[in-house]
C-alpha cells in the first residue's frame, strides 16, 4: 500500500516544520510534499501523481484571497483540501467551506488538532470549527460560476484581474495572444460579465475578511 501523501502549502518554514511534526505523530509512514508559494503549489500538483490531501494556507505569495483554493479544486477536484489559516473569522471559514474546502484549521489550534483533522478528512469526513456565519447565496453563485472555468481559464482570469493586457498574459502564461483572447471571451461568457472590469471585481470578491 502506498504511503499517504500530504501536500503542505504554506510560506512559513517554521510553521511547515510544525505541521510536518504533527502529521508524523498522527500518521504512520506519511509522505509530505512542501510548497511555499502558489507557483510551487502548481508545480507540485503537476509533478505529484498521488496526493491524498492538501493543507492550504490562504496567504502564500501569488495567492489572492481564496483564489488558490478555487484553482486547486479546479485542477485536482478529487483531492480534499483543508485550509489552515491565521484568519479564523467565521465568514472566512464559511467561505472556505462554500468554495470547496472539506476542513478549516485555525493556526492558533494545538498541534493535536492538525492530526485529528487530517485523520477525519482522510476517513471521508470533514473538520470545521463551530460555524456561526450563515451561508452566502452570493458566494454560492460565485463558486458555481467559477467552477465552469478550466484551470487555464482561471489562470487567465487571475492575470486579467491584475490588470494585464492580453499580450502580457500570453507572455506570463506561455500562450499565444490569440489563445488568450479566446480564453477571455469564454471567461466573460461563463461568468456572465460584460467587461474585463466586471470579471476583475469577481476575483476581488474572493478576498476574505480581515488578514488571513
From TrEMBL:
Single biological process term from Gene Ontology: phosphorelay signal transduction system
Modified residues (4-aspartylphosphate): 57
A Pfam entry, by short name: GerE
Residues covered by the HTH luxR-type domain: 142-207
Superkingdom of origin organism: Bacteria
Keyword hit for Phosphoprotein: yes
Domain Response regulatory: start-end pairs: 5-122
UniProt-listed SMART domains: HTH_LUXR, REC
One GO MF term: DNA binding
Keywords of the record: DNA-binding, Phosphoprotein
Kinase in keyword set: no
InterPro entries xref list: CheY-like_superfamily, EvgA-like, NreC/VraR/RcsB-like_REC, Sig_transdc_resp-reg_C-effctor, Sig_transdc_resp-reg_receiver, Tscrpt_reg_LuxR_C, WH-like_DNA-bd_sf
Alphabetical list of CDD domains matching this protein: LuxR_C_like, REC_NarL-like
Protein name: Response regulator transcription factor
Species classification: Bacteria, Pseudomonadati, Pseudomonadota, Gammaproteobacteria, Lysobacterales
Amino acid at each position: 500500500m502506498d504511503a499517504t501523501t500530504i501536500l503542505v502549502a504554506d510560506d512559513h518554514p517554521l510553521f511547515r516544520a510544525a505541521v510536518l511534526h504533527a502529521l508524523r505523530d498522527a500518521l504512520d509512514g506519511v509522505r509530505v510534499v512542501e510548497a511555499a508559494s502558489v507557483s510551487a503549489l502548481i508545480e507540485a500538483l503537476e509533478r505529484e501523481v498521488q496526493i491524498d490531501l492538501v493543507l492550504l494556507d490562504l496567504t502564500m505569495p501569488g495567492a489572492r484571497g481564496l483564489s488558490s483554493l478555487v484553482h486547486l479544486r479546479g485542477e485536482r477536484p478529487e483531492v480534499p483540501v483543508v485550509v489552515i489559516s491565521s484568519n479564523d473569522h467565521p465568514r472566512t471559514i464559511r467561505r472556505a467551506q462554500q468554495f470547496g474546502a472539506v476542513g478549516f484549521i485555525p493556526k492558533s489550534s494545538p498541534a493535536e488538532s492538525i492530526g485529528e483533522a487530517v485523520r477525519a478528512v482522510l476517513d471521508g469526513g470533514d473538520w470545521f470549527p463551530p460555524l456561526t456565519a450563515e451561508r452566502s447565496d452570493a458566494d454560492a453563485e460565485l463558486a458555481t460560476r467559477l467552477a465552469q472555468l478550466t484551470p487555464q481559464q482561471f489562470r487567465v482570469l487571475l492575470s486579467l484581474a491584475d490588470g494585464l493586457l492580453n499580450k502580457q498574459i500570453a507572455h506570463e502564461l506561455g500562450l499565444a495572444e490569440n489563445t488568450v483572447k479566446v480564453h477571455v471571451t469564454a471567461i466573460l461568457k461563463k461568468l456572465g460579465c460584460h467587461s474585463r472590469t466586471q470579471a476583475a471585481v469577481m476575483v476581488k470578491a474572493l478576498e476574505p475578511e480581515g488578514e488571513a
